[in-house]
Input
Amino acid sequence: MSTSSIRVLVVDDYEPWLNFATKTLRGKLELCVVGEASDGLEAVRKAQGLQPDLILLDVGLPTINGIQAARRILQHSPKTKILFVSEQRSPDIVEEALRTGAGGYLVKSDAASELLPAVKALLEGKRFLSASLSALRSLIRDTIFC
Amino acid sequence: MSFPQDRRTFCSWLLAPLVMVLSVSGFAAGVPAAEPQKAVLALYGSRPDLPANVIVDEIIRSTLERELGPRLDFYAEYIDTTRWPEAETQSAVHDFLRRRYERKKLSVIIAVAQPAINFIRLYGDELFPGVPIVVYGPLDALRDWEPGRPIAGMLGKLDLVGTVQLILRLQPSTREILIISGASPTDQWLQSIARSQLEELEKRVKFTFLTGVAVEDLVKTVTQVPDGTAILFLSMLQDSAGNNLLSHEVLAHIANVARVPVYSQSGTNVGRGTVGGVVFNPESLGREAAQLTLRVLRGERIQDLPVQESTSTVPMVDWRQLRRWGLNEKNLPPGSIVLNRQPTVWNLYKRYIVSAVCLLLVQTSLIVGLLRQRAIRRKAEADLTLTYDRLRLAVEAGKAVSWDSDAQSNRLRWFGDLRTMFGIPSDAFEGQVEDFYRHVYPDDRESVRSAVADARRSHGPYAEEFRVIRDDQAVRWVTAKGKFYYKNDGEAEQMVGMAFDITDRKLAEQQVRESEDRLAGIVGTAMDAIIAIDEEQRIVLFNAAAEKMFGCLAEDAFGTTIDRFIPERFRRKHAEHIEAFHRSGVTSRLMSSRGVLWAVRTNGVEFPIEASISHTESDGKRMFTVTIRDISERLRAENALSSIGSRLIEAHEEERTWIGRELHDDINQKLAMLAIEMDAWKQADSREKFSEHLRHAKKRIMDLSMDVQALSHRLHSSKLEYLGLVVAAGSFCKEVSEKTKVDVQFSHSAVPSTMPKEVSLCLFRVLQEAVQNAIKYSGVSRFHVNLRRTSDGLELTVADEGKGFVERVGFSGHGLGLISMRERLQIVHGVLEIKTKPGAGTTIIARVPLQSAELLAIAG
Output
């Protein structure tokens, strides 16, 4: 997969995070943040309109949550890579988020060190789970990572 | 020429009855045909053309013929001594009669008038030996008859005195009476009797006898007699010159010219110009003599028969002469016979008049009757018209139709309000019976035909209610009544009846029925007890809710007073309130406005109620209706609610206190410690040391993040929001199990992945509360939680086998627990069911309905 001009959509209702993510990704790995969204339905609409290669998606969002939004986006754009970025650490939530077909789950607190590796892993077709969640890996069904 | 046989038979048949009639007639006369004829000889003393002889002969002959018929052999002989007075002539007559009748066997001889009686006296025994003699003549005719010689006779009195007295009565001023008589022996005989009889009256009146004077002289005399004179004409068969005269003709001539009235003693002269007199009536005398003769002919011995004086001598006058001479009829003696009275119109046409009057009367009666009939008919017609108008008005006003139909021809006539009933724009209609049935609603035709047929067969009344279809297809209800009229042979002749439009009534009845049904439905299904009582407070209505509330069947309540459901201490007050309510004129009132009312069940348990009362008045009778609501539960709920408020506030405060404590005592303390530690970083002497501080700080910050997430999770389940009810519920049960060491077993089936947020939140909160309660109060180490989809919604069950509790106590306890669960469920139209009792565990079931569309959407 070529790494040039990789289109990224950032979805979060916390503006400082949007700024952080955009700043972190800009100029890295040929990434290009093509859009931002602050609620679930807006994310679905923009995903359909922008057809990004990658979406950074929060779980807790207004209107519909991130898990529901991921299901809809992947239904229409199955090639889009989705990386959940959330502070939620509940194994149930992580499992359900990954069950949508998303490529990875990143704990927000670890973003400073894991965002770019997570993006890279997804762009390389791999799946990603934050290191801080490694203790939960046994709780998450293996099939998700097959 | 001869008749054919059948024709002769025909004639015989015709003649036979005639012969029989003639035979019977002869037998009926009582005279055997074989009996020999009776030879009767009438011997007259004067000429045959004298009127008296003609009359007497006719009467005697006809009388005898009437009795004897053809057996009468009648002879008449006239010796006429006036015209043949000579002895030779009389001898010749004697010989003639002897020779003539010597071979005749005479049955009887009738001697008429004085000359004949004298002839028989002298020669009868010689000429007619043994033949019975019947005499007819004046009373003095037998003056010379030998005593003991057998004879029978009828003699008339010559009453000249009576005649003169009649003259004097009619002409009281008469001073002289001229008495005219002839010169014949008979005339003289009469004159001698007159002289003899009138002798007694000579002092009263002067009598002048004119005897045998020639007729011409008599005429002169009578035309010159002075006033105060009357003329009495006896007879004049011969004048002095020997001229034979017809006495009645002389009389007529004289009477015609006389200047004074002329009288006569002979009945035959009345009507010939004389006024009249006391006369001897030849007709009566002849009839009596004929009857005497018949007695002789029937075999009676002559010796046994009398010589009688006839009673036929009576005053007799000619009415025309009375008028001629101006004589007053009133002066006639009683019993006088007035002849020739000019008949009055009455006399002339009496029968016609009577007939005409009768006819007139009959006609008048008929006319009166007809007029009366016409008046009655007109009145009847007027009454009929009035009655018809009344009937028509009544019929039209009453939306009615009158009908009559001919049972034979099926002709039908209607009149009345045809527009309303049949949609016919007229007040009269003529047609056929089938026209009627065509208007009858199809479903009702059979029953109407059957009712008509029954009435016709049973001779009973016809009555039926049915529907008709108007020409505009509108359906109307009709009630009809009628009857059949029959002929003498019992065959139906006519049907008459009346039909009324009862659509409005039917609609009203239907509305009333529906209203009653609705009312009955409302009353029957009402949650509140409804009791109606009459003026004596006796129960007349007791609905199902009342039965349940008071534990009393309606049939046991009817007729009893409502006092039985009022605690005894309130009964008197209750009666006063009822009366005061009625007097107030208010139709309805809430009874419990003055506080809680109390009622008593049949088991004696009192309970609080809320009641309202209303009253109606119909036909002067009052009716009260009391609506009662058992407010036991409500009061309990109100009591519970009143405590909930404070407990809710307490709960809020507790929650805030806990959050505050968590934020202050835990998170804030940890942040403070972190801040203190960060101050120590200033003293880090190496990059490695600083990095170590940073890693440590990050860990502390992430721990804080975890704490905040835990706090947030307690306040609001993110799993519920992100992962749905099943995951959240299972996660919660798992967390509780781990935290409390109580095994909370969660199971679920067919729960939809998505559902309304308020439903999932409600059930999650109920689950949290129920699980917390079970852990806290059941005392068991394991219990079950199940979440499943039902046909119409979702059902959450939390069941333990622990201590259980008294339900009422559970609601009134110190926690929000059960009440908050119920309140939450009510928000989503759900219900809470609690199955518990002390020692038998507790099962909490929460049911939330989901709309079909939601379920389908969810299932899809």
